[in-house]
Amino acid sequence: MNLRLRGLTHVFRLYRSTLLHVLQSTIYYSSWSLHAFTWTYVMPCEVKRRFVLLYGSQRGQAQAIAEELSDQAAEHGLVADLFCLSKKEKYNLEKETAPVVFIVSTTGDGEPPDNALSFVKTIKNKSLPRDYFAHLNYAVLALGDTNYANFCNCGKTIDGRLQELGAKHFYSTGYADDGVGLEIVIDPWIEGVWEAIKKSVAEMATPGQQDTDSARSLHTTDLTAAAGQENTRASGLDVGVASLTLKDKPAQASEVPKSTSEVEKGEPKPVVLEVSLTQSLPPLSESALNVPSLPPPFLNVSLEDAPAQELSGPVRLDHHQEVSISKTVQLTRDDAVKTAIMLELDISGKDMPYQPGDSFDVLCPNDASEVLKLIQTLRLEQQSHHRVQLELRKDTKKKAAQLPPYVPVGCTLLYLLTWCLEIRSVPKKAFLRALVECTSAAPEKRRLQELCSKQGTADYNRFIRDTSVCLLDLLLAFPSCHPPLSLLIEHLPKLQPRSYSAASSSQRHPGKLHFVFNIVQFPACPERLVARRGVCTGWLSSLVSPILQSDSAMQGPVETTVSASLPMIHVGLRPGNAFRLPSDLSVPMVMVGPGTGVAPFIGFLQQREKERVNHPDGCFGETWLFFGCRHKDRDFLFREELERFVDNGTLTCLKVSFSRDASEGAQSQSSPRYVQHNLLLHAKEVANILLKEKGYFYVCGDAKNMAKDVNDVLVDIIVAEMEVDKLEAMKTIANLREEKRYLQDIWS
Ligand code: FAD
């Protein structure tokens, strides 16, 4: 009797919480839903089972996955309470009785995304009792990139801490790697999570009735291993890296039949000789396709010929400030492969205290001519100065639909596309799926279906992801595709600021902040008919180009102090940086920074130079810098300044490698080509500094190749110098990272 009563109480609790949930959402949506609510209550079998879905997202990817998961929940008889981790007032894990799913990305050197920082800090509180989350059943999907150190660190931190506080997994943790394609792990993880949530809900409603351990063991597939297998299979197919797409399970995915009868009947089949963005070959062109379900539209957008908000700059946050560019220096010769530019910002009078090693964000607009071209392609030229009116569709099936907060009320179409949306972003498969509906020509429709289908993943990777195709490229390649503006706002992510490392010390340059960047170039290719430059670096170089051009006859670096009208940009310091000089001046350090990766080390050395002047009797540790570039005469950044640091003793050793000079025979064949080769040549000294003298090891620059190669060489050095095996060496490196003596500031 007691048992039955207890069971009933649990069932009642479950329905009560579901009831409250349904009540909240129905009141919010419509009176029709209120009717549904009554029906739902008297027919308990129909009650959707609730779970909590929390995300922490830096660039919107984890959020997008969480939103898609939430949208798919209904198909599985579930309803998700979806919240950002920062909205602590909206969820309460202390009392949560439903399963909780965390989807979190990792940023910087393993840090949580900004909107998860406070949550992570809260659960890390050492005073929390061991059983604090003993009632909690949860699962984690961690996003990361193995090109960076501390892969999936935020997910691992949350996971580890929840375990310490007594919470239980109801499903194994997924570690998705952007370095090889997030979907390799995400797709199977999502396929399995629905059953796991349902089981967990059932267990929590009727505790003791099921063997929870055996139930859980059904879901303990190691998804990292699964990723490895998938990867091996993919590599055989020459599949590149896929961006995230969420697809239905095959059984539920929409099926596009084998032969597209529209194509066959209506128009003659083109003879295709080569596969391309717009053309496919058998077997894909003849196979049945599993395409993702159509993302539910959620915005009504109109363009009104009414006075719009006169906005001219970026959408600003409190910590962004407008500063002037007081100096520009082209650090490379005109014949260098990449052009590197140093900008000096005048931050005097601004509240921007920074230290060497800090990085900051630059708010940048999309390229003006590209925006105009997009407006033309959308056939909206006449309305570019019209006011954009946004509202949520009352009938939307999208859960947690909201107006994009980064679109200011009453802005113009031109402003929207210039400052709010990342128009260069690579369209995700869900976006392609939505574009299918706006395409009239049958062959184009079919090709878009292929590109977003499960079967077309290799083509998607090859022709869209790997070539960085953007929406405009697609619209030009598929001329019968005419999406409404609402679709762009629904699918294009927020235009992100770009980060740069400070390349100065405020002790050396009071009131000034320097940074260095390479102008990113996207050459023209069959998928992208015109060459383009990076959004931010292209814009910055245009801003300063009139000044640089006037001096272009000069040989060597071009330096210009801006006087007439100072170009202005908006910047903001990035919080929470660990890439700092050791506080103890006597601690030695090794710095590795090829190309623009040298930027923070210029700041470090300027600071050290000052400190040496201020403390003439001080004890200073050795400083080693490994720099690399292509050609000694063309792109040896900061050469004079670095040589001065060596001359005055600030820099103990400067080791430089030239990758192209060596191959052109200007140096002997044994010359080190890359920074890692130079590190190997000085293995003894590096090992001594790091292991005997407890020094610091800093790496800055390219995440994709250099940082990995340097790490591998460091393992080799430790193996050789400590006479240990590789595993032991890797442990030593892990300890260095743990002690914050191996620090990276890397980007791709
Ligand atoms: P975007 O338009 O954003 O394009 C860049 C993207 O295109 C990248 O994903 C890149 O992989 C890809 N890409 C580049 N070239 C090609 C090509 N030819 N074909 C196809 N794809 C390509 N950068 C610096 O130069 N100096 C710094 O000091 C610096 N510090 C940073 C510090 C931090 C903490 C971080 C996160 C990044 C830093 N970066 C730095 C990188 C910087 O933020 C930008 O990513 C970079 O300047 C490019 O911005 P963009 O808008 O011009 O390029």
Brief sketch in words of this structure:
Helix content is 37%, strand content 17%.
Characterize the structure shown.
The protein is built from 24 helices and 24 strands. Strands 10, 11, 12, 14, 15, 18 and 19 form a seven-stranded antiparallel sheet that branches. Strands 1, 2, 3, 4, 5 and 6 form a six-stranded parallel sheet that branches. The chain has a five-stranded parallel sheet with strand order 22-21-20-23-24, sandwiched between helices. Helices cover 37% and strands 17% of the residues. It is globular, with a radius of gyration of 28 Å. The chain binds flavin-adenine dinucleotide (FAD). The site of flavin-adenine dinucleotide has 25 residues, from strand 14, strand 15, strand 16, helix 17 and strand 24.
- What Rg, in angstroms, do the CA atoms define? 28 Å
Largest sheet: 7 strands, antiparallel
**Which compounds are bound in this model?**
flavin-adenine dinucleotide
The poorly predicted ranges are 1-46, 208-253, 259-264, 549-555
* Overall 3D form: globular
Overall pLDDT confidence: 83
Q: Number of helix segments?
A: 24
Helix content: 25-40%
Number of strands: 24
Helix/strand/pairing category: alpha/beta
Distance between the termini: 64 Å
Strand content: 15-25%
